[in-house]
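Why does residue order matter? Because the sequence determines the fold. Keep that principle in mind as you read this record.
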Amino acid sequence: MRAVIRRQGKLVVDDFPLPDPGPGQVVCKSLVCGICGSDLHALDHYDRMIDLSERVGGVSQMKKGADTVFGHEFCCEVLDASGPFKAGDRVVSLPGLAGAAGFESIGYSSRVPGGFAERMLLSEALMLRVPNGLAAETAALTEPLAVGEHAAAMARPEPGDAFMVIGCGPVGLAVIASLKARGLGPVIAADFSAERRAAAERMGADRVIDPARVSPHASWADFQVPGTRAEAIMAAMSGAPRRRPVIFECVGAPGVLQQIAEAAPAGALIIVAGVCMEADRIDPLIFIVKVELRFVYGYSREEFAASLENLAEGRTRYPEIVTGIVGLAETPEAFVRLQTDKSQIKILVAPTR
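Structure:
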């Protein structure tokens, strides 16, 4: 079968074998698969991702020097099944494959292909049927939206909170969409890209800011958030309304976390959803005395299912983040566009296009 393969640091379109399905596994046709920021990281930091996985006690299914097919944001059509699913069913799935050899991470395995291939293997136990009428291009956004849903949930938000999202790529936009689907706000969104700021507004952000012109943190006072610890104490003593500031770091670049902590209001909760692939440096004392820090990753099955439901029920405008759909042959160039053109947000790959 044809697939986009990472081979010796580059993306090529070539044949890739599909393993035989084991018990509880089904063969599916990949209809649509989104290009994730993690795919961009994996292309350029492949060996480092393997090394870091081993340093934290894991075992990477990506192997150094081996061909690997990325793609973990997918919607598929079942081709062959004997269990609860039947041929022709459209499905999404948590990106994992359970088998006799253990658990494989779909999209980050050198043995089983991800969604940038014509065919995939999925585990019935992890699959969800796409509701009737939902386009495959929309269903494929379940996975990235679930990342935002998990980040929002990990903030343990309350109706009186005020939120800020730094970085309005797919993850930041998913956070905004998930907060708004819960009826929460105000949400302040900041990004240097005009196109991404416009997308944040479509997701429901209450204020959208170009950080090249003004600090997004200048907006806190407009939403009854004290800026300093002394102001927070005075507000508490006087009984004045006070919102808890919650900041989502969705950039994943060196230095950003330190910048946010220095500029944040005292008592802010910082949720780190961006993945920085380089070593970073922070001044711990600033974090200790001023803010709370929480790192998040992935999502639960329940959050994944809730995201599919939000898409199916039209509770979010997240499908509007898509800026292009390409075939396999155009995928390597689409990676370059996402790395160099910040007007691009989410490009989908249709392997059989």
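The two ends are 14 Å apart (CA to CA).
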